[in-house]
C-alpha cells in the first residue's frame, strides 16, 4: 500500500492534457497496480523520492532515458513508460505514427490503452482507433483525424469510427459561436430535470450508436453543470453535484466502450471523488463496483477482486449493489483461475435476485438473471470451458430486447471467441461477421478487442474460406502501421 507523506500531495492529473500528464498518470497507475509505495519505488530505482513524485504529478518530465527504462523495468511496463516519455521529449505528429508498442489487444495489462492511446486534446483533431502493427498484433491508438481523411485509414475503419462526422451537434462545434449561459427560465422544469433527461437520452443512444457520438456531448454537459453550480445554493447545488457525478460515471463508461481504458479510469476516479461530496453511499458503492468491472475488462489480476470486495463492504448488506459487485468478483476469480470461487459467486448472485427485487436504488437495475448468466459465460470462456460459454452467450443473444444493439455485438464477439476455443471455426467466423457489423455501426472498442482475440484464435484455420473471409474483413476495419 502507498504510504502517506507530509508535503506535496498527488495532483489530480488529466491524462488528455499533455504527454507529460499522460506519463505521470500512467506511472502512478502502474505503481499502484504493482503495489509499490512512492518511496519504495524510488529506493528500488536509487533515485530521490521528490524527483519521482514530480514525475507522477506532471510537474517535471524525466530527462534521463536510463532512469525511465529502469522504472519501466521495475514496474514491468513492457516499454509503455519509455514510449510515453519519448513523446514528451520528441513529439511526433500523430499522423506519422501508430504505436511503438507490440502488446496484443487481448493481453492483460493495466497499460494496454496507455501504451496505445495518446488521445488528442481536441475531439476534432484526433480519434481513437484500432490499428494493426507490422507484427500482426492489434492495438488502440490516437491518429490525426485530418490525416485519416486524406487517406491514412481504410474506408472500413473510417466508416466504423465516424471519421469526418461531428461527435455531436453542439454550439461549441461551430466556429465563432460561444455557448450561452443556461437560464433556468428557459426550461419547462428545472435545469437539473432537463439535464437528467438528456443523460437518459444519451444512455439510450449509446447502445444504438456507440460511444463516439456521445463523448463530446457528455463532457460538455459536465462543464455546463460546473458553471451552473457556481450560482446555485442549497439543495440545487447538491442536486447539480450529484448529477455531475453521474455524468462523470457515464463518461467513464463511454471511454471504456471506446477502448480507451486510461480515460475511463480518469473519469471513474472523478466520479468516485465527487460522489463523496454528495454523501450518496449508493452512488459511491456503484462507482466502486464499476471500478471492479473496468479492472476485469482490463484483465487486471491484481485489482479486480479487491475492488469488488471493497464495493461489497461499502454497499448496504443484501442490496442490489452488493450483488452487482459480487457479479464482478466472480469474473475476477475466473481471471485468477479460481473456478470454484467464480461459480460460487455467480450462484450467490442468482440466489439473491428475488431478495433484492424490492431494492429502490436506481443503480444496477439491469441486474437480471440473464445478465448474471452472461457473466458466468464470460468467466467460463476465460477458464477454458468454451463450449459451455458459447451456449450461454447464444441464449443471451436470442433473448436480448430490441435496442440493445451494441450489447448484442459484444455478446456475439465473445460467443465467436468461445466457438473458436471449442474448435468450431466456421461457426466462430459466422458469428464474428455479425459482431463485425455491430462494431462498424457503433465503433465499440470492446467489440473490436474481442474480435482481435478471435482473429488470433482463428489463425490455425486461416486457409478455410469462411475464416479467411472474416479475417480479411476484420483487417479492413483496422488502421495499419505505415
List keywords for this structure.
22 helices, 3-stranded mixed sheet, 482 residues, 434 Repressor (Amino-terminal Domain)
Q: What would you note in describing this structure?
A:
The chain is mainly alpha-helical. Helix content is 62%, strand content 3%. Strand 1 and strand 2 form a beta hairpin. Helix 13 (281-297) runs antiparallel to helix 14, helix 15 (320-335) packs parallel to helix 17 and helix 20 (425-442) runs antiparallel to helix 21. The chain is globular, with a radius of gyration of 22 Å.
Total strand count, please?
3
SS-derived structural category: mainly alpha
Q: Name the beta content range.
A: under 5%
Number of helices: 22
H-E order: HHHHHHEEHHHHHHHHHHHHHHHHE
Summarize the biggest pleated sheet.
3 strands, mixed
C-alpha Rg (nearest Å) = 22 Å
Low-confidence segments: 1-9, 92-126, 144-181
Helical content stands at: 55-70%
Average predicted local confidence, pLDDT: 80
What assembly state would you assign to the polypeptide chains in this entry? single chain
CA(first)-CA(last) distance: 42 Å
Gross geometry: globular
The strands making up the biggest β-sheet line up spatially as: 2-1-3
Amino acid at each position: 500500500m502507498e504510504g502517506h507523506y507530509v508535503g506535496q500531495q498527488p495532483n489530480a492529473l488529466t491524462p488528455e492534457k499533455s504527454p507529460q500528464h499522460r506519463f505521470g498518470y500512467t506511472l502512478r497507475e502502474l505503481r499502484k497496480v504493482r503495489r509499490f509505495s512512492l518511496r519504495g519505488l524510488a529506493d528500488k530505482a536509487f533515485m530521490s523520492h521528490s524527483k519521482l513524485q514530480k514525475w507522477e504529478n506532471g510537474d517535471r518530465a524525466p530527462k534521463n532515458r536510463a532512469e525511465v527504462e529502469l522504472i519501466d523495468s521495475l514496474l514491468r511496463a513492457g516499454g509503455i513508460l519509455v514510449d510515453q516519455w519519448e513523446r514528451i521529449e520528441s513529439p511526433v505528429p500523430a499522423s506519422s505514427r501508430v504505436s511503438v508498442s507490440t502488446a496484443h489487444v487481448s493481453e492483460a495489462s493495466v497499460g494496454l490503452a496507455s501504451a496505445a492511446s495518446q488521445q488528442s486534446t481536441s475531439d476534432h483533431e484526433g480519434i481513437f482507433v484500432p490499428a494493426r502493427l507490422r507484427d500482426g498484433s492489434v492495438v488502440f491508438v490516437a491518429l490525426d483525424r485530418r490525416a485519416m481523411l486524406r487517406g491514412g485509414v481504410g474506408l472500413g475503419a473510417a466508416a466504423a469510427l465516424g471519421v469526418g462526422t461531428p461527435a455531436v451537434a453542439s454550439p461549441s462545434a461551430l466556429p465563432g459561436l460561444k455557448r450561452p449561459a443556461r437560464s433556468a427560465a428557459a426550461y419547462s422544469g428545472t435545469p437539473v430535470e432537463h439535464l437528467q433527461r438528456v443523460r437518459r437520452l444519451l444512455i439510450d443512444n449509446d447502445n444504438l450508436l456507440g460511444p463516439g457520438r456521445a463523448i463530446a456531448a457528455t463532457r460538455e454537459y459536465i462543464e455546463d453543470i460546473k458553471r451552473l453550480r457556481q450560482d446555485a445554493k442549497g439543495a440545487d447545488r447538491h442536486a447539480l453535484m450529484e448529477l455531475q457525478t453521474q455524468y462523470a460515471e457515464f463518461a467513464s463508461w463511454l471511454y471504456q466502450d471506446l477502448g480507451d481504458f486510461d480515460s475511463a479510469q480518469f473519469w471513474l476516479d472523478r466520479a468516485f471523488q465527487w460522489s463523496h461530496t454528495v454523501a450518496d453511499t449508493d452512488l459511491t458503492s456503484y462507482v466502486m463496483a464499476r471500478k471492479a468491472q473496468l479492472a476485469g475488462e482490463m484483465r487486471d489480476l491484481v485489482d479486480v477482486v479487491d475492488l469488488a470486495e471493497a464495493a461489497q463492504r461499502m454497499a448496504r448488506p443484501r442490496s442490489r449493489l452488493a450483488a452487482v459487485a459480487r457479479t464482478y468478483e466472480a469474473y475476477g476469480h475466473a481471471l485468477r483461475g479460481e473456478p470454484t470461487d467464480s461459480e460460487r459467486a455467480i450462484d450467490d448472485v442468482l440466489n439473491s435476485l428475488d431478495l433484492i427485487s424490492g431494492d429502490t436504488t436506481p443503480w444496477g437495475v439491469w441486474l437480471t438473471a440473464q445478465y448474471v448468466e452472461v457473466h458466468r459465460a464470460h468467466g467460463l470462456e476465460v477458464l477454458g470451458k468454451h463450449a459451455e460459454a458459447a451456449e450461454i452467450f447464444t441464449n443471451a443473444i436470442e433473448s436480448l430486447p430490441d435496442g440493445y444493439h451494441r450489447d448484442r455485438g459484444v455478446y456475439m464477439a465473445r460467443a465467436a471467441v468461445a466457438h473458436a476455443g471449442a474448435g468450431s471455426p466456421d461457426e466462430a467466423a459466422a458469428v464474428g461477421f455479425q459482431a463485425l457489423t455491430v462494431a462498424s455501426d457503433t465503433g465499440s472498442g470492446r467489440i473490436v478487442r474481442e474480435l482481435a482475440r478471435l482473429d488470433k484464435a482463428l489463425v490455425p484455420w486461416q486457409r478455410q474460406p469462411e475464416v479467411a473471409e472474416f479475417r480479411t474483413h476484420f483487417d479492413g476495419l483496422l488502421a495499419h502501421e505505415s
